[in-house]
Amino acid sequence: MKAQAMATKTEPLTSHRATSQPARRPRQSFYRRHDGLILGGSAVVLTIVIWQAFWSAGKISPLFLSGPSAIVKQFWETLRHGTLLADIRFSGLNFLIGFGIALVSGVVLGVIIGWYRWVRLLFDPFLNALYATPRIAMVPMIIIWFGVGMWSKVFIVFLSSFFPVLINTVGGIRSVDADLLKAARAFCASDWQIFKTVAIPGSVPFILTGVRQGVALGLIGVVVGEMFGGSQGVGFMVAYGGQTFATDTLFLGVMIIAFAGIILTMLAEKLERRFSRWRPER
Amino acid sequence: MQKLEVEHLTKRYWLERYEHEVLALEDISLAVEDGEFLAIVGPSGCGKTTLLNITAGLLPYDEGAVRIDGKKVQGPGIDRAVVFQHASLLPWRTILGNIRYGMEMQKRFNEATMQERADRFLKLVGLAGFGHHYPSELSGGMQQRANLARALAADPVVLLMDEPFAALDAQTREFMQAELLKIWAQARKTVLFITHQINEAVYLADRVAVFSARPGRLKRVFRIPFDRPRTLNLKRDPRFLEIEDAIWQLIEEEADRIGVSSGAEAMAP
């Protein structure tokens, strides 16, 4: 209270005038504008330097941990031989197909389940049971069904991404603002019009949250699927590296997965922001 | 010519939680003339919003009749438009898009007419230049202007207003009341206006209907004699205060009768 009163006293009244100059962002130092990048970047660089120093000094057993230079070397060699790109392509394709099917079917089914109560009641027991089961428990079953080839991986990705997309879509459709529904009804909107103009646009932010979660879980799915069987892909690379104590291969695989995760999450967040331009700024 | 008629309207609710029936409105009869501004005041729980929802076609009723232009109300219709208490604007549409919304749903006008009307009513409510803003970028008062423009653009026979200024701060509310009268003078619609603020009702309306609480009954209708255009100064006129006081006493009596103080508190200016 006190602080507020003081603030009003010192503030010049003219600053509230609509006619005054548009407010300009106060000038900040280079550091203040990029502090996240500078601090975070230095921490990463420092960690790598220390790590490499220990590695070069021979203080780290290659059976236990790899070193930055060894990982880069491994990266370069597998890239030259073409095996790295083949692995990435295999995993990437599995991910894209599985996630694509999950996205389309998750949104479509989610909209139907969210909109029609009876469909929801019909599906609820199955969805709850499947949702509560860890997807990894189903992997052996899936391999029996689809074999150790590509399609078992695709299905595991699908299963991993499907639920977050579905459940968020259902949530979005069901949490339609009652005031907006009332307004639409008062203007004679038909069910179809309400669906198109209120339910769907209102669900977009929810669906995109589902996409973001689905991307993260789908990435886990692709790795897990390849670890359980098969002879290709980045997940296989990690599992193989682990079994043969080739820590450089293992680390390279983990880093590629981490990198893919960062890129995909960033894309999903960008998409989320793009579609919520109308939301109040936070 | 009567644009809105309510005849012996009775509305009962079944309260699931308490397993008994509530009489929300009992035997309401009133009529609003063409171009007339009728305000309904009453304590909270007097069923005034129920009456508006029934008139809007959002609530079913079984006894009595509500007619617009002689036609019985059965569900929402293009002859009515509602200005809601909460602006209820689609947050993902711009202000212009929101003003178009009612017309789009009602499918009465072609594209060119919709465009022209949206622009016209955007200007009429004083939002020129804000057409491409999103609702979240506007103040509460401006959002209510858009809410009003959306209803007016739909060109209803009767405009229904459900405490449209109740959620605004006191200053904005006064200002919006004056604005509403200016806009109404140009749009010349038949208006049913619900409020719990006596002074708002007296300032705006040609007639003020006072409702009693539990069950909602029409207690008395006051004719407001002041000429138009009215300015906010009118609120300090002794005759204005006299009418306001008479209505206030009527409602106070009512609160005493049913022994609820909360109802009277809600009426405090």
Task: Explain briefly what this protein structure is.
The complex is a heterodimer of chains A (282) and B (269). With 282 residues, chain A is mainly alpha-helical.
Write the layout of secondary structure elements.
The complex is a heterodimer of chains A (282) and B (269).
Chain A: H1 2-10, H2 30-33, H3 35-56, H4 68-81, H5 83-115, H6 117-132, H7 139-146, H8 150-174, H9 178-186, H10 191-228, H11 234-243, H12 247-274
Helix pairs in contact in A: 4-12, 5-6, 5-8, 5-10, 5-11, 7-8, 8-10, 10-11, 10-12, 11-12
Chain B: E1 2-15, E2 20-33, E3 37-41, H1 48-56, E4 63-68, E5 71-72, E6 80-83, H2 95-106, H3 111-124, H4 140-153, E7 158-162, H5 170-187, E8 190-195, H6 198-204, E9 207-212, E10 217-223, H7 238-258, H8 261-267
Parallel strand pairs in B: 3-8, 3-9, 6-7, 7-8
Antiparallel strand pairs in B: 1-2, 1-4, 4-5, 9-10
Helix pairs in contact in B: 2-3, 2-4, 3-4, 6-7, 7-8
Whole-number total of structural domains of chain B: 2
As for the CATH topology of the largest domain in chain B, it is: Rossmann fold
Topology pattern of chain A, helix = H, strand = E: HHHHHHHHHHHH
The strands making up the biggest β-sheet of chain B line up spatially as 6-7-8-3-9-10
What gross morphology of chain A would you assign?
Answer: flat
Radius of gyration of chain B: 18 Å
Number of strands of chain B: 10
Features:
heterodimer; A: mainly alpha; MetI-like fold; 2 domains; disordered N terminus; B: 269 residues; Rossmann fold; 6-stranded mixed beta sheet; 4-stranded antiparallel beta sheet; globular
Protein model, in words:
The complex is a heterodimer of chains A (282) and B (269). With 282 residues, chain A is mainly α. Chain A has twelve helices and no strands. Chain A has helices at residues 2-10, 30-33, 35-56, 68-81, 83-115, 117-132, 139-146, 150-174, 178-186, 191-228, 234-243, 247-274. The longest helix of chain A has 38 residues, at 191-228. Chain B folds into two domains: 2-75 and 159-267, Rossmann fold, CATH 3.40.50; 80-155, no CATH class. In chain B, a hairpin with a 2-residue loop joins strand 4 (63-68) and strand 5 (71-72). Chain B is globular and about 55 Å long. Mean pLDDT of chain B is 89; it is low at 261-269. The interface between A and B is medium-sized, with 21 and 25 residues.
